[in-house]
């Protein structure tokens, strides 16, 4: 495909762990025999075949005897495009039709062993997010649905789920990962909070796409388009969770969904062992994105209070990521993709002005005036308000 690769993996046939060690290769595999070349440090794995012994990702036994062939080793791979090998002379070994599927831009499983590893559903979804011209073979989709129905996805460990989801979020079209997971039924098992957003209506004057799930997919792809970091993309994924719990009698309005989003986010992040930086940013975005969208109408005092809630003084980088997530939310709407997001530059200017205020100097002056405790904090707040007011245009301050 002309894409760069980061490493080379070698398969060794006709050898044993003892022979590899005697040749100077360094063992590194915990679950199966993998070795590092003594000079290049490239990975060399003994050819092996696997057998399913229990549900989930870890339920496998393997055999890595010298009589295991390369073709047998390739037969245990997930997709045909990942079941090709090349020898030292550049000769392609392709016993399972990977070259044809690569040409046809089809993601197809190698064989029935695909159903034995539920992580393969997540990997398949991630490949869809990366390779936007590819589709999934119908028979492979059917296998994924059967795996979900059999409960295989329920046995996945949280760390592995997060690893694959986070990698998929960083691909070119994250929406394709989540849409495939939804199509095969896995999204409802792994992220029921996200699954619940599909079919939830929104006010058409603000959201011409109407469906909240569709909007979320557009937000994710906007985050990819703008090249944002993982915490921003996770915040985009979870910013509207509360809309799934809006009472039916008030739809399509979603008053108070921000607070409900924060409530749903906590258990989700705990369940998937989400890193702290991703969780904390997501909480700020879920709670404040509506206020940030409306911030062009706020005066200096309200802007300072908003930045207080976002802890912008101590966490300026996180505040910048908050603005990025809000921009993705605003532009992830049908017909709004090219719109300039006005709140971001105004808030950046307000923060820059407020940061010019020296808290030490303000505190010293307040103490000299006899102020104590909370009164010193109020003096600092007022100094920031005055700085922001002076920096903004008169009609906006």
Automatic annotation (TrEMBL):
Record's keyword terms, sorted: ATP-binding, Hydrolase, Magnesium, Metal-binding, Multifunctional enzyme, Nickel, Nucleotide-binding, Nucleotidyltransferase, RNA repair, RNA-binding, Transferase, tRNA processing
Q: Which InterPro entries match?
A: CCA_bact, HD/PDEase_dom, HD_domain, NT_sf, PolA_pol_head_dom, PolyA_RNA-bd, tRNA_CCA-adding_enzyme
Superkingdom field? Bacteria
- The answer on whether this UniProt entry bears the keyword Manganese reads no
Cofactor(s) this protein cannot do without: Mg(2+); Ni(2+)
What processes in GO biological process is this protein linked to? Answer: RNA repair; tRNA 3'-terminal CCA addition
Query: What does the record list as coiled-coil region(s)?
Result: none
GO MF assignments: ATP binding; CCA tRNA nucleotidyltransferase activity; cyclic-nucleotide phosphodiesterase activity; magnesium ion binding; phosphatase activity; tRNA binding
Chain ranges of the HD domain: 212-313
Q: Which residues bind ATP?
A: 2, 77, 123, 126
Q: Which reaction does it catalyse?
A: a tRNA with a 3' CCA end + 2 CTP + ATP = a tRNA with a 3' CCACCA end + 3 diphosphate; a tRNA precursor + 2 CTP + ATP = a tRNA with a 3' CCA end + 3 diphosphate
Quote the record's cofactor note: Magnesium is required for nucleotidyltransferase activity.
Task: Please name the SUPFAM superfamilies in this protein's record.
Answer: Nucleotidyltransferase, Poly A polymerase C-terminal region-like
The EC code for this enzyme is 2.7.7.72, 3.1.3.-, 3.1.4.-
The positions annotated for binding Mg(2+) are: 7, 9
Residues annotated as binding CTP: 2, 77, 123, 126
Q: Which family does it belong to?
A: Belongs to the tRNA nucleotidyltransferase/poly(A) polymerase family. Bacterial CCA-adding enzyme type 1 subfamily.
Q: Which HAMAP family does the UniProt entry name for this protein?
A: CCA_bact_type1
Could you tell me which NCBIfam families the record lists for this protein? PRK10885.1 (NF008137)
What's said on domains? Comprises two domains: an N-terminal domain containing the nucleotidyltransferase activity and a C-terminal HD domain associated with both phosphodiesterase and phosphatase activities.
PANTHER family per UniProt? MULTIFUNCTIONAL CCA PROTEIN (PTHR47545:SF1)
| Other facts noted in the record for this chain | A single active site specifically recognizes both ATP and CTP and is responsible for their addition.
- Report the protein's function: Catalyzes the addition and repair of the essential 3'-terminal CCA sequence in tRNAs without using a nucleic acid template. Adds these three nucleotides in the order of C, C, and A to the tRNA nucleotide-73, using CTP and ATP as substrates and producing inorganic pyrophosphate. tRNA 3'-terminal CCA addition is required both for tRNA processing and repair. Also involved in tRNA surveillance by mediating tandem CCA addition to generate a CCACCA at the 3' terminus of unstable tRNAs. While stable tRNAs receive only 3'-terminal CCA, unstable tRNAs are marked with CCACCA and rapidly degraded.
Subunit text: Monomer. Can also form homodimers and oligomers.
| Entry protein name | Multifunctional CCA protein
Organism (species) = Sphaerotilus montanus
């Amino acid at each position: 495909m002309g894409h760069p690769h980061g490493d080379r993996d070698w398969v060794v046939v006709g050898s044993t762990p003892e022979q590899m060690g005697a040749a100077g290769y360094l063992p590194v595999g915990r679950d199966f025999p993998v070795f590092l070349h003594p000079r290049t440090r490239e990975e060399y794995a003994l050819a092996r075949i696997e057998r399913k012994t229990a549900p989930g990702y870890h339920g496998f036994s393997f055999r890595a005897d010298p009589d295991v062939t390369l073709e047998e080793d390739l037969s245990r791979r997930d997709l045909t495009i990942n079941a090709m090998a090349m020898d030292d002379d550049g000769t392609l070994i392709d016993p399972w039709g990977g070259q044809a599927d690569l040409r046809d831009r089809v993601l197809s499983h190698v064989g029935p062993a695909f159903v034995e590893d539920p992580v393969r559903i997540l990997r398949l979804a991630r490949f869809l997010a990366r390779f936007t011209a590819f589709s999934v073979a119908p028979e492979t989709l059917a296998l994924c649905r059967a795996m979900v129905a059999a409960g295989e996805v329920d046995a996945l460990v949280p760390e592995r789920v997060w690893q694959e989801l986070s990698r998929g979020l960083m691909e070119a079209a994250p929406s394709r990962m989540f849409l495939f997971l939804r199509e095969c039924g896995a999204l409802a098992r792994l992220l029921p909070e996200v699954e619940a957003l599909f079919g939830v209506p929104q006010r058409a004057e603000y959201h011409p796409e109407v469906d909240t799930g569709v909007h979320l997919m557009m937000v994710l792809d906007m985050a990819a388009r703008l090249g944002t970091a993982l915490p921003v993309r996770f915040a985009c994924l979870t910013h509207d969770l509360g809309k799934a719990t809006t009472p039916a009698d008030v739809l399509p309005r979603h008053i108070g969904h921000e607070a409900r989003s924060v409530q749903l986010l906590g258990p989700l992040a705990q369940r998937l062992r989400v890193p702290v930086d991703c969780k904390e940013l997501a909480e700020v975005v879920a709670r404040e994105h509506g206020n940030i969208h409306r911030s062009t109408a706020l005066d200096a005092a309200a802007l300072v209070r908003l930045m207080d809630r976002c802890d912008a003084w101590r966490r300026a980088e996180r505040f910048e990521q908050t603005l990025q997530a809000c921009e993705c939310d605003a532009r992830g709407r049908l017909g709004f993709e090219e719109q300039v997001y006005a709140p971001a530059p105004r808030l950046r200017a307000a923060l820059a002005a407020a940061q010019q205020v020296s808290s030490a100097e303000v505190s010293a002056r307040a103490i000299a005036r006899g102020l104590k405790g909370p009164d010193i904090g109020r003096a600092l707040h007022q100094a920031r308000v005055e700085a922001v007011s002076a920096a903004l245009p008169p009609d906006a301050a």
